[in-house]
Amino acid sequence: MHEEEHYLTSLFEPKSVAVIGASDRENSVGNIIYRNIVAAGYKGRLYPINPKHDTVQGVQAYKSIEEIGARVDLAVIATQARTVPAIIEQCGRSGVKNVVVITAGFAEAGHSGAALERKMVEIARSYGVRILGPNCLGLIRPVQGLNATFANISANPGNLALVSQSGALCTAILDWAKVNDVGFSSVISTGGSADIDFGEILDYLVYDNRTHYILMYVEGIRNARRFMSAMRSAARIKPILLLKAGRYESGSVAAQVHSGMALGSDAVFDAALKRAGVVRVRNIGQLFYAAKGLASKFRPDGNKLLIITNGGGPGAMAADRAAELGIPLADLSQSTIASLNAVLPPTWSHANPIDIVGDATPERYRDAILAGTQDPEVDGILVMLTPQAMTQPEEVAKAVITASETCTKPIVGCWMGEQQTYPARKMLTEAGIPAFRMPETAVDLFSHLSTYYRNQKLLLQTPEPISRQAKTATEGAKMLIEAVLSERRKVLSEMESKSVLRAFKIPVAQTMVARTPTEALLLAEQIGFPVVMKVDSPDLPRKSEVGGVRLNIISAAAVRNAYHDILDTVGRNAPNARINGVSIEPFVARPNGRELKVGVIRDRVFGPVITFGVGGAECEVFNDTAVALPPMNSYLVEDLIRSTRAAKILGDYRNMPAANMEALEDVLLRISQMVCELPWLQELDLNPLIVDENGAIAADARIVIDFAPSSGDRYSHMAIHPYPAHLVEDWVLPDGQVVVIRPIRPEDAEMEKEFVAHLSDESKYFRFMDTLRELTQSMLVRFTQIDYDREMAFVAVTEEDGKEVQVGVSRFVSNPDGETVEFALAVADGWQKRGVGRKLMSAIIECARAKGYRAVVGDVLALNSKMFKLMTSLGFTIHPHPEDPAVKRVIKPLTD
């Protein structure tokens, strides 16, 4: 498997373009597109196509694409919607592999448009033609002089790629970029994404060495798994900044009408981006400032900000913006305050923001920065200057640049004003220090970039779905769920809900249901007083609201009275509710208990989502809910808890000892396991989950289920594929040595690097078809941080001197056809001829078969006789390579 040109290169970097619908008619779309390509100085061959004219814009025109008789890489279609399917058929017959459909009037236009779109895609598939669009602005590749859009503005060459669902927004961004001297590697408008979606475009941009940063504008997503998979793969190698419409309900409706796609909750979208290592910005300015910030040496490790200013008011403005964004100001240590006292006048603010007073000299700025950078609480420094009578903006800028050379913390500048401060801002920017005119913009940048580096840590988390021992628990829960569904029920009773939770070792208060007052009495005696009594009804998720709960019942007489009282009260308040009886459970008196709420909801785009926040009676008041996408591990669980108000009441609070965080984290991890393993789960509500210094217990539980879609992929219900722990295998060699065969993890990077470094030159050459010495950082990332949905890598690992050592690796990635995979294999020289290669190949062949692929394909150097011997023994056939005589292609079909 060696690096080749990406299969979409001929679409985004075409050597020849035909414009179908090119015209002389002023202001028609075909006229503008053709004129734009000519005006941009396109370096390839350009063909205008118009059946009604012999010439277009003074150049010979063709009646149809079939008349050209030469290879055309890209056809840009700007004709009426109803003509498009037939034109794509002509393109297919002429060997054109890529088309951009500018025309609107497809899925976004209702039923007839959707039918037309299906027909268009069907014809394109039958000829292997790829479609960008329909209803899109087109694409720009500035370095080639290609501007195949109907925008009235072009783009300068640069290293930012812009991918946008909205053509109008593309134009607005290009306009902003022109004025601010920002350049692009590519500008790609996706429109309706009938065929090529964000996923494939991101894959191409990762390959494209002209693209260093990716900017995205998103309105809606067709396939969450593919979207997350592509974002996570791309964001590991290139920073992605994303602007999304539909933050609020009204915006969502507008975006859906525009893009014709389903939209889920905005909070869930945020949670998804965090896990994808992507930063979300709120407007076009932030998009570019954040991109500029990433291009500088701005790398905050955390989000605690120090503000240094020569004016109290501007400092307060910056502090206000930080508070709005949830950016904490760093608490200065006593030693930092002492250092500042030594270098600042006695009238300085003695707090953060550090007001170094209006007559601040360049030296005073420098000393304040150097003192602040020593404080471990500080993650980044905002240096502000307002021009006052004695201020020297450029001299201060020089002092800040000098200080930044020894400063270990990132610095962002805000020189307020225009005429007096512009040269200083330019100096700072040229020195790699982002500099702004307004404090809000500077704080926004710090917020986005600290989020970016934090999200990169979240991206690296690869949680395992479930331990091998917990499999039996899963089986019990599945049997109960299947029994309930066979009764045509979807809401589990409290007893059934708690039984499922118990299967996953989540502590619950024991519950039994009584159907008569006498039964209630017997159960209360059995459980032991005091008890809690609650109405048992599938129609009443909030029992206390209809008077269906009685707490701390301490006698037999009170049980009988409570039973009648609950039925009477609920009967009055909810006369249509079905009532099964009254549940009895122990009254859990936890004087130090914090009432929390843990839930699972189904987002219509991203599937199951875990929610967490303050619970009990206060949950409606506080509206404190954070959401996270499963699967989760300890790091992700801690991140979820930290992002809620509930986190503040879990430490020492109101004379109560700190809650048992380990017990809380364990509950959330087990909920994550439940979500992974139970695709039937639609809703889960633990409210309250009571946590104190001794542990956690779910006092109340409600689960809603539904039939799960049948799929070969056990995790098809999830947007992020968990670590496939079920594929881990202990393999015992004939001499008794144990080799573990398992899917690769991100933390295997160092082990993989050593493995490749120790391969012989011949083994390296056979594996990489190149004389590479060691893996580059981006290759290492690509090899170890894989997406288990679209690729797989198995490592063979043994233990030496108490540490894991890699002795082999096999991998496959899915090909663009979506039906075959390409494999690669390498075995340590000392481990060859011991069956390791066969074992690793068998693992990927079985994995590819289970995922429904039709064939495994590989390119092998013609000299590699050992590999051919192994391949033929595994049922591969050997074929000549279509382009390279030094290489042969091996193929193994996976279907009968």
Radius of gyration: 32 Å
Overall structural class, as computed from helix and strand content, comes to alpha/beta
For the terminal residues, how far apart are their CA atoms?
Answer: 25 Å
Strand content: 15-25%
Helix content: 25-40%
Number of strands: 37
Unreliably modeled segments: 248-263
Main beta sheet strand tally, sense and closure: 8 strands, mixed
Describe this entry's structure for a reader.
- This protein is α/β, with parallel strands linked by helices.
- 36% of the residues lie in helices and 23% in strands.
- The chain contains 28 helices and 37 strands.
- The chain has an 8-stranded mixed sheet, sandwiched between helices. Strands 9-8-11-10-12-13-14 form a 7-stranded mixed sheet, sandwiched between helices.
- It is globular, with a radius of gyration of 32 Å.
- The model is unreliable at 248-263 (pLDDT under 50).
Quick description:
By secondary structure, this protein is α/β, with parallel strands linked by helices. 36% of the residues lie in helices and 23% in strands.
Secondary-structure blueprint of this entry?
Elements: H1 9-12, E1 16-20, H2 29-39, E2 45-49, E3 55-56, E4 59-60, E5 74-77, H3 84-93, E6 98-101, H4 111-127, E7 130-132, E8 138-141, E9 146-149, E10 156-164, H5 167-179, E11 183-189, H6 198-207, E12 213-218, H7 224-235, E13 240-244, H8 249-259, H9 266-275, E14 279-281, H10 284-295, E15 305-309, H11 312-324, H12 334-343, E16 354-355, H13 362-373, E17 380-385, H14 393-406, E18 411-415, H15 422-430, E19 435-436, H16 439-459, H17 471-486, H18 494-503, E20 512-514, H19 517-527, E21 531-536, E22 549-553, H20 556-573, E23 581-586, E24 594-603, E25 607-614, H21 619-622, E26 625-628, H22 634-642, H23 661-677, E27 681-692, E28 695-698, E29 701-705, E30 729-732, E31 738-743, H24 749-757, H25 761-768, H26 777-784, E32 791-800, E33 803-814, E34 820-827, H27 836-850, E35 855-861, H28 865-873, E36 877-880, E37 887-893
Parallel strand pairs: 1-2, 1-5, 5-6, 6-7, 10-11, 10-12, 12-13, 13-14, 15-16, 15-17, 17-18, 18-19, 34-35
Antiparallel strand pairs: 3-4, 8-9, 8-11, 20-23, 21-22, 21-23, 24-25, 24-27, 25-26, 27-28, 27-29, 30-31, 31-32, 32-33, 33-34, 35-37, 36-37
Helix pairs in contact: 3-4, 6-7, 10-16, 11-16, 12-13, 13-14, 14-15, 17-18, 19-20
